[in-house]
Protein 1
Amino acid sequence: MVDPVLSVRGLKVDFGGEGRSVPVVRGVDFDVYPNEVLCIVGESGSGKSVTSLAVTGLLSETARVHGSIRLCGIDVTTADPETLRQMRGRDVGFIFQDPTTTLNPVLTVGRQITEGEVAHGRLKKSGAHARAAELLREVDIADPEGRAGQYPHQFSGGMRQRAVIAMAMAGQPKLIIADEPTTALDVTVQAQVLAVLARRQAEMGSAVILITHDLGVVAEVANRVAVMYGGRIVETAPVAEIFANPRHPYTRALLRSIPRIDTSDSRLDPIPGQPPIPGALPKGCAFQPRCAVGRDQPLCKAEDPALVAVGDQRQSACHFAGALPAEAIAAEPRILAASAAKHEPLLVVDGLRVHFPVKTGVLRRTTGWVKAVDGVSLSVNPGETVSLVGESGCGKTTTGRAIMGLVRATGGSIHFGGQSIRDLDHGTMRKARRQMQYVFQDPYASLNPVLSVEDIVAEPLRIHGLYDEMGGARRIAELFDMVGLSRTMLGRYPSEFSGGQKQRIGIARALALQPKLLILDEPVAALDVSIQAQVINLLQDLQRELGLAYLFIAHNLSVVRHVSDRVAVMYLGRIVEESSRDGLYELPVHPYTQSLLSAAPVPDPAVRDTRRRIVLEGEIPNPASPPSGCTFHPRCFRATEICSANAPSFDRYLDFATRTACHHAGPLEGRRNVFASGAMEIAS
Amino acid sequence: MIGFVLRRLLQLVPVLLLASTAIWAMIYAVPGGPIGAIAGDNASPEQIAAATAQFGLDRPVLVQYADWLWNAIRGDFGMSIRGRAPVLELIGQRLPATLQLAVAATIVSLVIGIPVAIASALRPGSWLDRILSGWSAMALGVPTFWLGILLILVFAVELRWLPSASAYVPIWKDPLGAIRNLALPALTLGIYVSGILARFLRASLVSELRADYVRTARSKGLPERQIVGVHILRNALLPFITIVGLMMANFIGGAVVTEAVFTYPGIGRLLIQAISTRDYPLIQGCIVVILVLYIAINMAVDVLYAYIDPRIDYR
């Protein structure tokens, strides 16, 4: 048996001073072996990041660490600072979440990649540039010599994260800790970065701890999984078994609460309540108040179960681990919105263009245009959900804002309820906006912190002078009922609410004026997995009860598949494919849609080695200087000469319900479905 | 970069125009004039009228302003009414003294401010941080005239090490003499401003210390000295040099009190004298020169910014 690279026993981490200490990690044991990828899964506050920082002694001084952490034979908890410093970079490398903030903006990338080795005395300063270029080449960065001398802001997000991988691997560490390494990246870029990470790990034989909340990523890369909840590991098992037969109620509930990209599933089954706050854990089992099995069971309320073996290589911390009922997913069919009856479309956007000027020179003359939105046409019927999906910078948010009149449209038309609402004067636009409200992505930043939530929800009514007419305080209380918030919370301030509750407040505010259309801009992207399901269900209930139409803007393909009636895929300011939900996911005909769907991780380890994958090269081009012809052609695996010469028109594909803009539209050869297993295909 | 500088210079034109108009208007809004002082108390109305005509002050205000503006554009700021010398010549005598003091005071404030800020930022909340923060607050709170007089009492009157009145000695002619003369006024101004700078840099350092890239640097096993000296300081200096630039620009026209305490021949004192005698051309000249320097220093800061921060692109 090989010795583990890392062996953690009885790890406890407390924060805060004497008397008011908050336990964030409460007794964690695990081992990581060479050549192994251990995924630690958990929601915010589960203690997963703190555990990983404790392993390298990188916690702040207010943290107190108990237990033992043996990394390459040295106990980290008792090592002196100089020994620890020597171990970092040499024995353990770190990859952090957000590559825009983890790199120092004022130093060159090359210097940052090699300065660790220089500090450890293993590399001379004179050789640093050549070494940096070599490391960048190993993570597939083109022109590594030139790139090493550039600064982080000259790199795209995916390139930055690859540079961070190069940096973490520079010292050939035996353990690599990656904390949400792809969470900030787009799905096609995530696929590239995960591929680079896996290849470099295999070449060096290091052990990897990958911390994530994304069960799709787990299924793609993990060998073994540890699920954390409330500061403890509640279940650990090989990846296939975690997904096939979870032995802890939390794991089971988590798997059931996520929307899946590979099926048109039934209603989501959210975990009730909120993840516990480290300072205020429930007595007994931390999951007990949210648990379908153990809620209000005297044993679960009294005693925190120990993590015990429940089979070969498997452990679970549940009093009922041996007696969990058989999996019973309620196969409740999704209730389709009443859009079947043909209405006049509520919103019709035709040829919408939003161009921003690029100004240069002494006189700030306009020398070019960024075509953020360049000819978008779509319609939304009453009671229907139409989704706009695409990667960052594709123009989906700008489209939403232009429809609301928050940015000025450069061209095209926008009709709402049969009336043109483009270029209206202020007063008329305000009236039109009554019917049309916006829910913002970030529930933390979109609520004014100095207003009570009652005033926040009442504000649209007051602005339109309808507060008394629509029932005043009674109306606000009704709205709170509608979004599932207690009326007792009316007088509180936003800081007292969790992320999911804040988003409910944002939805209540949007509903105050009884709109017909909500524009939902990434409404669940900032929320924890178990909370996402709650908010998605709420949105679907509200739609059914109030007959709302949704324009749903998102990058998460699984969520979009779950909520939509129709889906439009955007690339560089244009819609490249639009179809019914199942039409688009089951039979995509545009190469970009096909690549996008194949790059999205599927939470099912059984298909990961056989699934057909198209890894796109490069990243979304700069919209200020888009490629000629079809803007997707430089990355497209079907591109021919005509693609660089002529832009394809947006037309119906054969006699399908699908409309697409591609010279070579058609299903992937051999397979109807990108989710079916097939040979790995790398686009070039 | 050249385009950026040109653009900033173009922006200077309306600022100067607006400022000189405002000053002209303010001068004439206040009763009294320069002629009474020139002609003397016993002057007859005829004598006053003659003097007024001699300086062209009997013409309509707008004509006077247009005349002044036309000459100023061609580089002629007119004659001082009281000093009977070209305005530019009077300013030219004072300008080097002012610049020398401004540079010296800035150096003093940086030499005190930066180490104080680093020492207190590294361990926020420690006893050292509390002592140094207290010191910064005191440096800010003590009035410069009082500090100046205190320094004179100690170093000039009691110890007799330094002169009590500071003359202008060009540093390239007599470095030692220049330092002896500059020491007390530069300390007075520098200590005051070091309090502001230390507080500002400390806040900036403390927030940078929590940045993600610092954690990354630690995870690479870099020594703490390198993390603070290279990674953190370069980022923290970015907002800091803006403040340094503003403070230095402030020394040009705003060191009046200190100049008065040390009877130092700077532009600030010249301007005060000009105002008290209603010497219109001299007031205008001083303010235009102070404004131009103020903007020039801030422009230099912006250019410096581009060198330190690679993200800034002044195209």
Protein 2
Amino acid sequence: MTLAPELSAESVPAPTGPPALAITGFGVLSGAGIGPQALAAAIGGHGAGPADVSGMFEEPLPRQDAHALVDFKVRDHLGRKGTSFFDRSTALGMVACKAALADTDLEVDDDNRARIGITLGTTAGSAKSTSDYSRDTFVQERPYLVNPLLFPNAVMNCAAGQAGIWYGLQGPNATIAGGPLAMLNVLRYSRNLIGCGYASALLAGSIEEFSPQAAWAVHYGQSTEGGSLPPGEGAAVFVVENADAVRAAGRRPDAEVLSVEVGVFDPPGPDGAFSQGLATCLTRALERAGVTADQVATVATAANGMTRLDEAEEAAVTSVLGSDVPRLRVKESTGEAFSASGAFQLAALLARHRTEPARDGEISVITARTAEGAAGAAVVRGWSRAGGDHG
Amino acid sequence: MRRVVITGLGPVSSIGIGASAYEAGLREGVNGVSPIACFDSTGFPYYMAGEVHDFRPEDMVRRLSVDEWGRTSLFAASAARLAVADAGIDEDELAAARAGSSMGTTGGESQVLERLTGDSLTAGLDGLDAGLVRQVSSARLSQAVNRELRLTGDAVTLSTACSASNYALGYAYDLIRTGEADYMIAGGADSVGRWSHAGFYRLGALTEKACSPFDKDRSGIITGEGGAAMFLESLESARARGARIHAEVLGYGLNCDANHMVAPNRDSIAECMRIAHRNAGVKASEVDYICAHGTGTPANDYVEASAVVDVFGENPPPISSTKSMLGHTMGAASGLGAIASVLGIAGSFLPPTINFNTPDPDMPKIDPVPNQARTADVRIAQVNGFAFGGNNAIVILGRPS
């Protein structure tokens, strides 16, 4: 691994455009385990690998391993009361929100709860909840004999809505279906809400649950594109605020999201148009962050073994940043977790900062891409909490 | 900050496809509700929905292959096509610009997931069509719009349930206002399906034949579907290219009840209206028309009317529900409501609440524009959108000055 360039706060020009987002705390649950340390260990090569999931569901699975939280039970984290109807997706998101709130120095009280909101990413909500609902209309004695108490679970904004109730957050409450682009969409959306003054802080993150439906979706996607990555699951939620306001208050962020750029292009293919598109996003992200390619210490990529997409992404990254910048292939440790994957990329970088103070002030890039042609890149700067220079 | 205007409208609805047909439907108070055709409703006690029977995506989209995209994505892309045509902007010029899309939804492509669920019962999970599995992601709604129109900017799918189009419209407005984008397509899309029909029935929120918002005997929603798209650009841009300006987006408000997943909250909804007015720089007394969330459930309409009176006083502006005609088009609902309001601003009329028979003595006195569209000068309109999860979103539209 190459040494990161030494950076002081002065060496990074002021970003252009909307204000940078400060991350003042985060919570993560991934197949690597619960909390940043487990994730940092896994990306450092000390993870336990995918778990045996053969006992999790009655339905047949395409493979018996996944980066899943096999023993996860919501009641262990939030208690029994009021949690029995949460589906897995909602439960994972709620617990990640709780961890994020516990990790930040932002205090939620009656004076600010109307100004604190939630933005959570997804692919299609809890596909299991929606599919089970449809299934009941086919197999029950009468097609309408579905459980009304579970109806909200079948709708995509369930996790964000429940988290709003649970944590008493009355600010803007949004859900964004972005699939692999979800976390970058969420960051852009959150930056706008904060930059335009709709909210002063947000719980911004993304969720994906493991289920038979998700396992088969990963299987079909991977096998069509020559990959063999197991599925993953989990959630990561970040407390984001206006970076200028955080610093003005004398607080120290864990990270700053300096820029996020996204776009849609013709899907990855031999013409290279998609790579050019992703390269454009990446170049724009560096420009708007006010950093140069040689300042980038790490690229957390979306590589997942799907050859056509991996090659297109790698071509773009190489064209802008060169081939020497270390790649962090987070999905090797967390599996294919669709909308949670981008959140894991960000969480992995932050988790590593927390455990490695030598990386204080390093600049990293996150890239994302989809088979549909959506692409994006974010530029992030992070610090440890162990007395590092928080800028 | 730039001023933001709407210069193109693309409704795909059960009462009309395209701005002219949709406006005619609104003016005539057409009922778009009919017996369900897209799934076998045998065994369901209620069998009506607001389906768009005339939707022929293959005649509307040009770049997308209709076999590769779900019905909801095709609603979104088709509506976007209509909005761009209505805006009269050159397609190549648009593709070369900083342009994107922001679309709302409740169920996304859940009807694709429903089909796969049905298939799995016979073919097994290992016997599914991989191409169909790929279509399940709701992210594809906005991506379909971008791909159809070669837009290389943001593609965002806001899945905040039944207020999602208002979220999407608000976000698109901000992206243009702040200079982040030059053109945006904003709206929403949803499709009728078994699971939501069953869910609303079991929730006791479905009515049998006709949706009658604000009526004393209202008894629930009718599920509906469709697509809504609006073309947004800056005022300078619209003037520079000589575009016809339908309306201006003045601002919007968002908040969350943080109280109950399905029951609406009067105080929180009233507060959302105040936030929207403040952000838009308008006074309540300046609002000429409210396009209601108006689902037709006893709870929603009572709470909504009460919140309106809390904010507007005893003589609130006329408030009508397009859901009486369309059914509840879910993630498209506030988008189709916004388009109706834009048409009302541009054409000086108020869309009616059809199926209205008896005022509700237990509800604050409101004017639901019963049964007949009405000629009226609409300078400022308010579009209400509320949703599961207490996701409130209200957009304020104005006549361009």
Protein 3
Amino acid sequence: MTRDEFERNKRRFGDDVGAWPAPFRQEARAFVTGETARSPQDDPDRALDRLVLEAALMASDEQALTHKVLARIDAGRRSTWSSFLPRFLLEPAGLAACAAAMLVAMTLAGYQVARLQDDLQDSELLALASGARLSDNGLSGDGLSGIAADPAAGEDSL
Amino acid sequence: MVPAAVQHEEPREDDELLARVAAGNQGALSELIARHGRGLRMFAARYLGNAGDAEDVVQEVFVTIWKQAARFDPARGRASTWLYRITANRCIDQRRRRALRTFIGLDDVRDEVASQEPGAEATTAARQELAIVRDCLSRLPERQRMAVLLRAVGDLDIAAIAEVMGGSAGSAEQLLVRGRRALRDHLRDHLAMAAEGLERKSS
């Protein structure tokens, strides 16, 4: 930390360095005491912390961050309801839930269709068992089954 | 031994800012970002080893704070601890997401945190040393790395580290002690190797 940075932070956060937010606080303390990670210190842990802090330092633009955060908040406010479904679907859990719901729906639909077909086959088998004969045009007297319920009706159609 | 508490005043200013954020004041949020954005970003970047992910995490954190500031209770802890707790949780989520993407081949993870002066790395011994520290940090087990960073970057005491990481003070202290020991061991090995390399070159 340079003298200019220290003075600038003093104007931002006040005279009491102890009340500054981290990591400004640690940097200011080091600046005031003149200690660095490499200068001899009584506490080796403090020296290591200082070294880790120096290694972690990186350029940072809080104003740009503020703009991005506020933009996100505004975007979220505008599209809370309109984009709820797509955002939900983009989440892995949402995608999995949707896939599971579709699978269940398709299974139920499949059962329904199969049951209708089964009903048809059941009535055909019942008619066959009661001695009905297949009609050539594929329609019986009631127009639903390929088996004539009345054996005589089947003969008439020949 | 690690000191039980760090000697610094409680910045109650953050509590007031959070109360104003809870009331919907965007200026207060900007002020909060100015105070803590840098620290949270440094912590996330070093923990995740990726500047882009860290930026995204910190943005998410402040959006969360905007939405949930009313849930902060000053009686239960410091505001900075709450901020680091949210950030730590987001970092863990981000790491899991990244691991999943890497596992299914969508990502190639590399340490992508820019130094303070890009391109200036390795020009002096001090910068080389910091690059070695960053490398050693990335080799620490995740929870040890988190404890070390919360202490060094966030300036949190043991109780606050325990609160952020969701454990007891004893386990947080152990993590910190082990993390520091492992970091020192890595650094010693690295520096010995570097010295050996220099000797070989000069001979």
Protein 4
Amino acid sequence: MFREGLSWWWTGHLRLEGRAARPAALFDRLLADHVPLHGGRVAAGRVQLCVRLADFRRVRPAARDGGARLHIARRVGLPFLVGGLRRRPVLVLGLLIGAGLLYVLSGCVWFVRIQGAERVSAAEVRYAAARLGVRPGIWRASIHPQEVARRLPIMVPDLAWAAVRLQGTLVTVQVMERLQPAPSDQRVAQAGDIVAAHAGVVSDIQVQTGQAMVRAGDRVQAGQILIQGIVPMAPSRTGGGAVPTPVHAAGTVIARAWFGAYAEASRTISLALPDGRTFVRRALVIAGHPLPLSGFGRLPLRSYRLERRVQGPPTWRGFTLPVQLVTQRYLGVAHVLRRLSVAAAGELATASARAYLLPHLPRGARVIAERRSVFPLPGDRVGVELLVESEDNIGVFRPFPAEPAARAAGTAGATGR
Amino acid sequence: MPHPPGRPTAAPGDLRPGRTDLGRRLRFAMADTLDVPADLVFDVPRLTLIGSFQLVVENHHGLLVFEPNRLVIGAGGGRIVVEGGDLGLAAVREGEIVVRGRITGISFAADPPPGQGEV
């Protein structure tokens, strides 16, 4: 049916309407004359049908047989479209120019995206790519992605690898930076101890390299050696005793530690409750310049809570129109004083103490227990002492001082005791 | 259509061979033996009904009545009466009529005797 419809549109067809005394005779004659038609309908003495433009003259005998007076109600199809365009040369010219512009513009590169540049600046990669011909405004056909990808790491030495991908008017330059040895890797060669970062009670110790100086249950102080970076090596071939050798101590020392904080809270608090009043301000921000739209009179609210919403047009191929609609909704609030119980005020103070304490815990620490004591204070206040028990790896590496030999000798003596 | 008494004949569109119609019997036997579709051997229409909204009539003999609720199409050995509502000719091609609308009934009627007008 679609192909037939397309064929009818291509050759053009006419919709004929009118009155017919004998509709059946009209259609029967059309059938007898082999005139293709569609959309044939009869209602209250009126007929309508569609015939091809080429068959229009063949309808006349049938109309005579059916006693019909038909007129053209609609012209559909390519021949009529072409005829209409012939009468509008400027429109045709505009369409052609538009299509040509679209073709030309879609053949150019308009956006260059750099991906994967973290230590190397994207601007540096972009500049190098531009020197190799990848920049907005050039023909897509003039870009040789493989050549650019080959030469980019030569121009930017910090790059290990690059790939260039063309997607429509967008060129994506994907780069991979050279790996540099991490500070921890550089330190591997150094000898030193694992010492306690802070005080605590050791609950578990796992030694990878070195010699454990503490065991589970020991109480340790900050800076105390936990795993020593001096190990007695096996007897040498010379037949002497164990030789103390400095190594890079490694291992995990899990310890529990306790941290405390104190906080107070008032039993009388001020609550901001919404009073139902709303005031809205809208502004259009064009390229950073606000254009007030509505609600920029005097603000009728003394206390309010502000909700801000920014709406912008959708992004297309990484490009966004610099237009935003900013809506600020001021929700009026009324302040109400409320007296809390000791327990409720204690919760507030606890939350305050916890908010202070948790960021100060050692990095990676896990809270395993919490204890608090709440007590009323004069002046309608409540105090809370919060004690948090945490567990973390307290071992940190500390390299030996500059004279490792002297230290090694001294420590070896201690080890030998 | 009344038949003379004692003369066996087929109903309109009935392909079964009558006792006296020798040519018809021969053609039926040939179609049966060679496994040829009957509408190719006999001058009879082929109707294809799609749901209750589209009817394709092939090998017709013209349009006799065209009303919004009734269509009569001439065919070999009789007439096809299509009843329904909002009936129209969706397409007319070489030897084929496509009727579209709300089809409620299709019947096959015999040709009226000469001079008795339309169905």
